[in-house]
Amino acid sequence: LPAIYLNGIYKRYGNNENNVEVLSNINLEIANGEFLALCGPSGSGKSTLLNILSGIDKPSLGYVVLLNKLLNDLAEKDLASLRSKHLGFIFQFFNLMPVLNAFDNVFYPLVLNGHFDTKAATERSLHCLDSVGLADLRDRKPGQLSGGQQQRVAIARALAHEPQIVVADEPTGNLDLATGDAILDLLLNINQQTGTTFVISTHSTQLKARAGRVVEIRDGGLAYDSAK
Ligand code: ADP
Ligand code: ADP
Q1: Rounded distance, CA 27 to CA 6, Å?
Q2: Residues 6+ apart with CB under 8 A from 66
Q3: CA pair distance 174, 147, nearest whole angstrom
Q4: Which residue spans adopt a coiled-coil conformation according to this UniProt entry (predicted)?
Q5: Best of 38, 39, 47 to mutate for ligand 1, by most ligand atoms within 8 A of CB?
Q6: What's the CA dihedral at 182, 188, 194, 199 to 10 degrees?
Q7: How many angstroms is it from 175 CA to the middle of ligand 1?
């Protein structure tokens, strides 16, 4: 069974019939362990599609099956619980808490997530910061870290609960080329070592070149799929 299955997805914002359709009949299967780059011009609906496949937003029409669960049937609290257990998120602007140091940015979400006690959360946080190369900088706040270092903290946070799927919205979009390449190396490594599925919206030619699969959205539909 695929990790993610989208069937006949349409998305139109608002209720007005005249509103533009952002997504139109999207059909997509993403297997466990894939490293998928989702491309397309700005405004083509990449973020919308990521939000729909992760159950943050609902399609106007169509089915979403995430980790063998039909999301259409789930209540908001069950969607939230599914996300907090099995999904990790990485963003373009890192979305770290500025008042917390690197350790606490990883540790607190893990404890608040409710599935780990303080001891387990501490061990996992230290382990994840170590695996992104930031063990020595764990006492620093985001403002005392470079962009690449902040994204490493965000990656540690996204992975600390060992999610099956990581959803990343332009994770290298706010980094210079060399820093972006290092972040890409890290994500590819994690994918290869752990088998975690990655779905990544991106404009980066490096990321597209090295992704296992490239899918492009254009005019609301899937214009290209390297797996087809
Ligand atoms: P991308 O991530 O490819 O840049 P988005 O998914 O962010 O594209 O946006 C696709 C289209 O949907 C854009 O035209 C955008 O203005 C519109 N859109 C996105 N979110 C909303 C929203 N919450 N309400 C209304 N329109 C939206
Ligand atoms: P030592 O190297 O002396 O064994 P560490 O510096 O690795 O100790 O950390 C000791 C404990 O302190 C860790 O197990 C962890 O629980 C906690 N800890 C470490 N860094 C932080 C931090 N930035 N914020 C909160 N707790 C931390």
Answers
A1: 5
A2: 3, 4, 5, 53, 54, 55, 82, 165
A3: 8
A4: none
A5: 47
A6: 120
A7: 23
Pocket of ligand 2, beta carbon within 6 A: 101, 103-104, 122, 138-139
- Sequence-distant (6+) residues with CB within 8 A of 50 are 38, 167, 169, 199, 201
Protein residue whose Cα sits closest to atom 24 of ligand 2: 103
Q: What are phi and psi of 142, to 5 degrees?
A: -50, -40
Contact 180, 206 (CB under 8 A): yes
| pLDDT grade for 114, boundaries at 50, 70 and 90 | confident
Task: Tell me the per-residue pLDDT of 7-25, one tens digit each, with 9 for 90 and over.
Answer: 999 999 986 666 789 999 9
Ligand 1 mean position, distance from CA 39 (Å): 14
What pLDDT does residue 113 have?
87
pTM of the complete model: 0.88
Place of tokens 């088998």: 195
CA 104 to chain centre: 20
Segment 139-177, tens digit of pLDDT: 999 999 999 999 999 999 999 999 999 999 999 999 999
